[in-house]
Known about the structure:
Helix content is 31%, strand content 24%. It has seven helices and nine strands. α2 packs across α4 and α3 packs across α4 (63-75). The longest helix has 15 residues, at 26-40.
Amino acid sequence: MATAPRDELSAFVDAVVLDRSSPVPLYYQAAQALEDAITSGKVPPGTRLDNELLLAEQLGLSRPTMRRAMQYLVDKGLIVRRRGVGTRVVQPKVRRSLELTSLYDDLQTGEQAPTTVVLSFATQPANPGVAAALAIPDNSPVLCIERLRSARGHPIAKMTNYVPDGLIETTAEEFETTGLYRMFRSAGIVARSRDLAGTRANRQGVSRLNSKL
C-alpha cells in the first residue's frame, strides 16, 4: 500500500507535542494536536496517512495508542479510511448537532481521577468580545466560571467559561464534581461544536448554545 510522502508525514508529526509527564492520556494529546493541525489547515485535505506504524514510531507511541488517536479523528470526521484508497485527511465539514465531551468527561473515562477547584463563580456584564461571541448586547449579564482542573492530583488546565445568564441553573459546588457539557445535556441543551469558541484548556471559553427544552 502506498504511504504518505515524507513531507506530508512530517507535517502531521511536527504538529504533535507530547507531555509524557502529564496525566492526560497520550492518545488524547496526540489526537487533539492532530485535530488542531487539520482544522487549521496545517495538514491539508488529501494528506495520506496510511502508515500508522511509522507514525507511531516517529511519535514514540505504541501502535495501539496511535490507532486510538486515529480512531478519534475518524469519529470526528477529520480522516477517512477506505479499502483500496487508504487513510486520508478530509475537508472539515459544517457539523450537525452532536454530543460533545468535556476534558472532565475524557479524563474520567480514562480513569485519571479528575478533580476541579472553582476559582470564581459570578455573574458579570459581558465585555465586547464575549458579547460578540455570544451574539448578545454589550454588558448583558453572563455567568463567568473560572476553574482549575487536575488529574491524579496534578493541575493540568485553568479554564474560563462564559455562559448566558439564566441558561442553566447551577452552583459552584456542582462544577467541582462534573463537566460543563454534561450540565448542558442534563438541562436538555444541545451544544454544537461550531458554537464553541476556544473552550480548550488554558483558553477563554465562550459558549453559545441552542436550547431544546
